[in-house]
Structure of Neoverrucotoxin subunit alpha-like isoform X2:
Amino acid sequence: MEKESNMTIMVAAVGRPFSTGMLYDCRNDTLVPGLSLWKRENLSQFMGERPQLYSDFEIITSDSTEDKSSALNVSASLKASFLSGMVEVEGSGKYLKNDVKSKNHARVTLKYEAYTKVQELSMDHLGRDNVDYKDILTKGVATHVVTAVLYGAQAFFVFDRELSKDEDRQNIEGHLKVAIQKIPKVSIEGEGSVCIDDKFSKTVEEFSCKYHGDFFLEENPVTFVESIKVYQSLPKLLEAHMTHVVPLKVWLLPLTYFDSEAAKLVCQIKADLVHRAQCVLEDITDLELRCNDAMKTTIAQQFPDIGKNLKNFRNLCFNLKVKFQQNLAKRLPLIRGGDEKDTGLDKSLHDYENFLFRSNLNVWMENQEKEISLLMAITDKLKKKGTKILLSEKDLYKEILSEDRVMCFVFHSLTSTDSFLSDLSIYLNKSAEPDLNAAPADRGDKRNWFFSDNVFDEVKGTMARFSESSKEIKRLAMVLAAEHKGASIHEYEDGDLIKEPEGAGSSEDKHGNRKKKKPAPLQTES
């Protein structure tokens, strides 16, 4: 562990309301408002201020936590606190929380940054005998005092759009990056219209924009063209509102400089532990994104059990993430304050890493994606044959009563409610820190119908017979609840079932005679 009790620290403000002379607790990365080491008049009397002029722009093509933290100058230690949920960000700092909700997104970010001045305390404050309220030093409420603040402003323009399955992300982002590089040089005509090269106009108009910044705008930009206008106005906005600049970086002096008995930051969290924590959260987030994409498919709407299982899986991932963040938030202050060794955090990270591998959550999600792809291929073929896909019992009754003859391709409960998800959810909620090594694991592909040759062949065979049926009969498809997995064909005339279902809805007795079954009730969402 690296000793930190006597070191000056620089931290990113990320939208937090810092000011010189303010107290700060590095154990949990929180400001301590209302308390000060100096009287107000003494604090302001000897304050130093000097210009620090700088501006630059940067294009960010990665959406990882690592790269967003780097863009905001967030240290590994502060990032650990952010990952745990202990740090609330504002202004441009909200860029850290702007996460995509889907894997099928193209995203490029334009960053603008400007510095204006540095404000700092002097030796009239920092002399050991110049502290007005010495009793504050030993109260244990803070570990550091803010001795200098760099002021300025930042702005992030996040350009984002959803991709179709045939589009290449790198290609789309590459074209957008080239267009963004030209923003500082784009001309704005007298009427306020923006001149964009025809080569890029089609690309950029499909992107939406989300603004995170420290500049007060009358209206936030939502399109690429609006972003160009705002970006080019930022230097003038900054010049006209110099009193409205915000803290970007702050420098902290340990309180042990004034009194050796003051609370101290004993050690920082090791960088490799922070990286592992980041990876655990990113792995869980990746599962959430894949689940979100799966829930958007028409299959998740048409097959209620699939939609229900995906919803339960997303809730499970959310709860797992919250548990992990709570665990981090509990351990970080203890380690930093020297009350706990980082071996406990190391073990906790190992448990989560092992759990994510052993529980087969990734395998579960892969199987859901395979099932959705297969069902999508089947339903697409049915649609090409003029088959109408129904979503409810009401829709079926309406169709069979409005047509003389109807043939219906029926999916029979291919997916059932997943006990693994409910068992794991119950287990995780038993305690604040459940033993992940004893948590239930997924059974993998053992329950999936598409790994069963009999069921899969039956679905394909039934579909082939359905496709060969008379084109003069109206064809439908929907999901029914049944004891069997697979598919069958139902025929209706004037609203009545006239032909016993072929396929999963019927079976043979021991003498080879076909046994008749009543049509199963329609499956509805719970």
